[in-house]
Amino acid sequence: MQKKLGAGNTTGVTAVVLLLLTSTKPIAGAVAAGDNAAAFEVLCDLISLAKSQPAGPKLESDSTSAYEELLKLNSTLSPKEWTDKFVDNANAKTYHQAVPPKITDPGNWKELWPDWVKAVEAVAKEENMDEIKKMNLANLNPRQLETTTVTVRQLAEEARELRKERAGLAGDLKLADDDTIRKQLNKAAFGDENTGQVTPAAAKVFSSASQTYTAACSTTGAAQKATAVLAAAACLCVKDHTDNEAQYCGKSAKLTATWTTASATIPDTAVTEPAAFWKAKAAPTLTSGSLQSKLEAVTRLIRVSTNAAILGTSETGTCTGKDTAGVCVSVTDGAQGKSPDASTFTWGATLKTLADNLRKKEETVKKAKQLDEKIQQLKARAFKTTIHTNIVKAGTADAKDQPAQDASQTSHVKADCKKHNNSKTKF
């Protein structure tokens, strides 16, 4: 039979009552140690990335040399009356670097002239002509030379169009260069738009170090104060001077310095201590996919309370730095009429822009590489045009000894020559 609680048990009852009354934290509904560990980890990932100062995608291919060689071959095959147009002073061996006034520009010469004159000048000075000399153009009979000239000219025109398309990619190829990547990562992580390792400070990661915890960590989207990743981490890991919890971000991120959250001063230790937990990792090439995945990890941890987008833990929908309310960073209107994501926060928006530019750069690099390969293939084809004609010549003494079927070919070549004699496609 159960024994009733009587006078003899007053000591035990008193002890229980005293324990309840002297507890420093509510039994339930309080932010506890480790509650922000998951959010801290995703922020750690972004800080470590910034510290590693990675490089971005690179374009390794280049078709400039192939294109210039093709134009030199085309110039070599061009008649003297054409190449003479580029000569300024034959004795001084100088050349018109732009369309001279005496020549009427049919519409596109101004754009093409620099490449043309460079090729003409290189041929005249016999610069790097070894590959062209190996073609033995002087050994071709007139018909073979005419065929080769038309073929090379057509290939040069195709290459020119591809080079024009390639040149149009120049702007996007400048996106997300290494310097920009490193600056933007440091800006997002530390509020410091410099490259290399930067020194964290409260006045950098927050818009101002002269504000209370709530004013700094909980604002509207247009008036965000915690503008860097490290500021968000400081809001999540804060060791308030009253509740004295040091492990909101987990046991591995135990803080020693306190932050008087009601004071209008954010101590540097509030940001320098969390920053010390992160080390720079190996710096692989940064891709849009890897950066986007880190942002998606942030998005998955954002919670919504009414209209507020909250990263961290809040019992009341507010961020006060107190375990009884919320230890978090929030954008109070971040979920108003929309689903919040990492870009809801200022630092997340900076990183999203970087991820978008990385994606565009990657796509452009791929396209430029494809164009370079096509131009290189055209150049290779052009330099093989004499292989067949030389084989044919080896068995014939003169052009008139060519097989009868070449008559139709000659007609075709002449038609092509007439077509390409037009000044717009001459060279």
Can you walk through the features of this model?
The protein is built from 17 helices and six strands. The chain is mainly α and 427 residues long. The protein folds into two domains: 195 residues, no CATH class; 138 residues, no CATH class. The strands form two sheets. A four-stranded mixed β-sheet has the order 3-6-5-4. It has a two-stranded antiparallel sheet with strand order 1-2. A hairpin with a 2-residue loop joins strand 4 and strand 5. Helix 3 packs across helix 5 and helix 7 runs antiparallel to helix 16. The longest helix is centred in the last third of the chain and has 37 residues. It is rod-shaped.
Gap from first CA to last CA: 112 Å
Number of domains: 2
Q: Approximately how much helix is present in the residues?
A: 40-55%
Rg measurement, Å:
36 Å
Cross-sheet strand order for the largest sheet? 3-6-5-4
Largest sheet: 4 strands, mixed
| Residues in β-strands, percent | 5-15%
Average pLDDT confidence is 87
Topology as a string of helices (H) and strands (E): HHHHEEHHHHHHHEHHHEEEHHH
Indicate the overall shape.
rod-shaped
Uncertain runs are 1-28, 393-425
How many strand units?
6
Going by helix content, strand content and strand pairing, the class is: mainly alpha
Organism: Trypanosoma brucei
GO cellular component, one term: side of membrane
Pfam families: VSG_B
Function: VSG forms a coat on the surface of the parasite. The trypanosome evades the immune response of the host by expressing a series of antigenically distinct VSGs from an estimated 1000 VSG genes.
